[in-house]
Design brief:
Number of strands: 7
Largest sheet: 5 strands, mixed
Strand content: 5-15%
Distance between the termini: 32 Å
Helix content: over 70%
């Protein structure tokens, strides 16, 4: 508040004397402070601007200060959703352009703000036209204005699902401001690049740039920028199905958005909270946030945003089995998305409509709409694979088995292409890592040579100063430097060898992963070809086999991705007080029917008085699920599996052990390695990914605990989980 009064006082003092006596530096400082206030609190900024405007009896278009003040007023009103007023101010400024000929950037700046208004209201075509005009008008020396135009152009291209071009344009914007260290713009552009990578499916890159943006915004204390980064990082957590973390980020974003007052941002945060609550099964909360988002989007007149909000409401109605309402809302959303030319939103809404048709058993309509969506430009392989899977399901229900076979073949080919692209991307990343290491080593060698030359020069000067009597001392120093240089060189070579070995391990893992992906794909293709040539006598049974293999493939991909996320320290534990005894009892009850199919017994025992521990319940459940699933599949019929638990002053111990068959000693040592296959009766032939135990180990290690395997007295394998008492007391965020 004190800062706001200081800005107002400074500006009033400047305006109380003729502007010709106020230095350009003073005016520029005042405007910079007002621009900062705009980012922090647009409502308060607009109040200040209104007060200052009263000091001008008539418009003064020849005054730089008056022009900049009008620009700030337009930006504030745009942020607050006062679009008509902002548009009127821009028309007024355009009419004064002949008088403002000394402000070379004015025409381009006005076009940029007009484009921003058009895009805010989902008129992408008009926005692109205005941006092209702005690019032609901007003077070459105005780097920041050129970068702002590129930034908005990248956003418009993203709305049109033209992600590769959007990526190129925003990188051009970054290249303009990076040399001058414009942190505010860099943070904004990094955030935009992160969103583009998120939409392209490159979540690692997306998270990296969002974090870079967030760090800069925190340095600048830019609340709107912080909100944008929290929102986009929350979206990545949602993509990764980490809903508690996503919920936390979206809630924080909504609080900041409400304080700043931008209705579109507030609506978007409500929409994301609605999506996460829906994923968590909280229908009532999802509906509340959805209705708030729709109300704000309707009031703003932004059809693209409204279409997206309505698509969320349609998903809520599907969850409530209100399919007629879902279809009505989805069709309204589709009309709005088409009118706004928002391609990504249109694709999303059309897929929602297809899911509704399948739920209504309207398979012919679903097929017609699938063909329409696949004919649209900009449909990527990920969307195409989903559509082909839905197409195969619809054709199967209509008993069009041959056509369903063709759809499945296309689905397999599309998935194969996705994996091929993934392999290429990983290979490129590996190549970039090698090049980075090579450059790093070269720099170290150059630095070492420079250090040696500098030391030699200094010693030569010393030798000249002190004479021949110090020759022996110089030789000793030279020998010392030489030996030290040799040690440094050996260290560099050792580090290089270690990095090369690390890369070799990654290459081996990549080869194993590629093999694991191709194996089920090959089996799937054989089954499809068998049905296509009528070798499979029962088509329904054949489709069940195919669906089972697709499910296996999906599980494998999910496990590979999750394991990679753990390797990159991307896992965040959501520790909460949990009654471990109740948790284990619930899991045992869930598995009883599965164990009964093989006449196996599953029991649970505990030695504990208080079993409340701070843990990530979802992750611990995942560990126990993996262990019990393995035990069920690999233990003989009529076998036994037992879970026991103990909590004491040392920590939590959980033991899962089963009966015959067991594993060899050499297998026990390697059982937690990724993709490791046991020789013998516990080999992987039950649809597992080979990553389950590796993921279990990563989860327990994230809890600062240990997991080990040994021979069970019951004749099988015993897996012991141990989490120390100190870790159980800590609540990680």
């Amino acid at each position: 508040m004190l800062f706001g009064h200081q800005v107002s006082l400074l500006l009033i003092l400047l305006l109380s004397i003729p502007l010709t006596y106020a230095s350009d530096q003073q005016v520029q400082t005042s405007l910079s402070q007002l621009s900062l206030s705009l980012e922090q609190n647009p409502k308060q900024t607009l109040v200040k601007v209104d007060e200052l405007n009263q000091l001008f009896i008539h418009p003064q278009p020849s005054s730089r200060f008056w022009f900049e003040l009008k620009i700030i007023e337009v930006k504030a009103k745009t942020k607050l959703g006062h679009f008509m007023e902002a548009k009127q101010h821009l028309y007024e400024l355009e009419s004064y352009l002949p008088v403002m000929s000394t402000f070379k950037e004015a025409p381009a700046q006005i076009k940029l703000l007009q484009a921003q208004l058009a895009i805010k209201q989902s008129d992408i075509s008009t926005g692109l036209l205005l941006l092209e005009q702005a690019r032609n008008l901007v003077p070459k020396e105005h780097l920041t204005l050129r970068s702002d135009i590129l930034h908005l152009l990248a956003r418009a291209l993203r709305y049109q699902a033209n992600y590769s071009e959007a990526e190129r344009v925003i990188k051009d914007a970054i290249s303009l401001v990076a040399p001058i260290q414009d942190k505010a713009r860099l943070a904004k552009y990094y955030n935009q690049l992160g969103v583009i990578y998120d939409y392209m499916g490159s979540l690692q890159l997306a998270l990296r740039f969002h974090e870079k943006s967030l760090n800069i915004q925190r340095q600048l204390q830019n609340q709107q920028g912080i909100s944008n980064s929290l929102y986009n990082i929350g979206e990545i957590y949602r993509d990764l199905e980490k809903y508690p973390q996503a919920l936390q980020h979206f809630k924080q974003a909504l609080e900041v958005d409400k304080a700043l007052g931008d209705p579109i941002h507030i609506a978007n945060s409500h929409g994301k909270l609605s999506q996460v609550h829906l994923q968590l099964g909280k229908i009532s909360e999802a509906l509340d946030h959805s209705q708030e988002g729709i109300k704000l989007a309707r009031a703003s007149g932004a059809n693209s945003d409204l279409a997206w909000q309505l698509s969320i409401l349609a998903n809520i109605y599907v969850a409530q089995s209100a399919l007629a309402q879902a279809l009505s809302v989805a069709q309204e959303a589709l009309e709005l998305a088409i009118e706004a030319k928002a391609k990504r939103t249109e694709h999303t809404v059309r897929i929602v409509i297809i899911e509704i048709r399948l739920a209504q058993a309207q398979y012919k309509k679903a097929l017609s709409e699938i063909e329409a969506v696949m004919a649209l430009p900009g449909i990527g392989n990920s969307y195409r694979a989903t559509l082909l899977k839905y197409q195969a399901q619809a054709l199967q229900q209509l008993e069009e088995y041959k056509l369903a076979m063709l759809s499945l073949e296309a689905f397999i080919d599309t998935k194969t292409q996705l994996y091929h692209d993934l392999d290429k991307q990983q290979a490129l990343t590996m190549q970039q890592n090698v090049e980075f290491i090579r450059q790093e080593q070269a720099l170290k060698l150059i630095q070492n040579e420079q250090d040696l030359a500098k030391a030699t020069l200094e010693n030569l000067k010393l030798q000249r100063g002190m004479g021949a009597s110090l020759l022996l001392c110089f030789m000793a120093v030279a020998i010392y430097i030489y030996k030290r240089q040799k040690q440094k060189q050996q260290f560099v070579e050792l580090e290089s060898d270690m990095m090369a070995e690390s890369l070799a391990q990654k290459n081996r893992l990549l080869a194993d992963v590629s093999h694991e992906l191709r194996t089920p794909l090959a089996a799937l293709k054989l089954t499809v070809e068998a049905m296509q040539h009528n070798i499979e006598p029962d088509p329904v049974k054949g489709f069940l086999k195919i669906q089972k293999k697709i499910s296996h493939l999906d599980n494998l991909i999910k496990d590979i991705y999750q394991s990679a996320q753990f390797d990159n320290d991307a896992m965040v534990l959501d520790k909460q007080p949990v009654d471990v005894s109740i948790l284990l009892k619930e899991i045992v009850e869930e598995f009883q029917p599965m164990y009964a199919t093989k006449q196996q017994t599953l029991s649970f025992s505990e030695k504990v008085h208080d079993s409340i521990c701070n843990l990530d319940a979802a992750r611990i459940r995942q560990v126990i699920f993996n262990l019990l699933r393995n035990s069920h599949f690999y233990t003989s019929s009529s076998g036994k599996t037992q879970i026991s638990m103990n909590v004491n002053e040392k920590g939590l111990t959980v033991l899962v052990e089963d009966s015959f068959p067991g594993v060899a000693n050499e297998d026990l040592e390697k059982i937690f390695e990724r993709l490791y296959r046991c020789e013998g009766s516990r080999s992987r032939d039950h649809g597992g990914s080979g990553l389950g135990l590796a993921i279990c180990q990563q989860i327990i290690q994230a809890h600062k605990g240990e997991i080990s395997a040994s021979h069970s007295e019951m004749g099988g394998v015993a897996i012991t989980l141990y989490i120390p008492h100190q870790s159980l007391l800590k609540s990680d965020s």
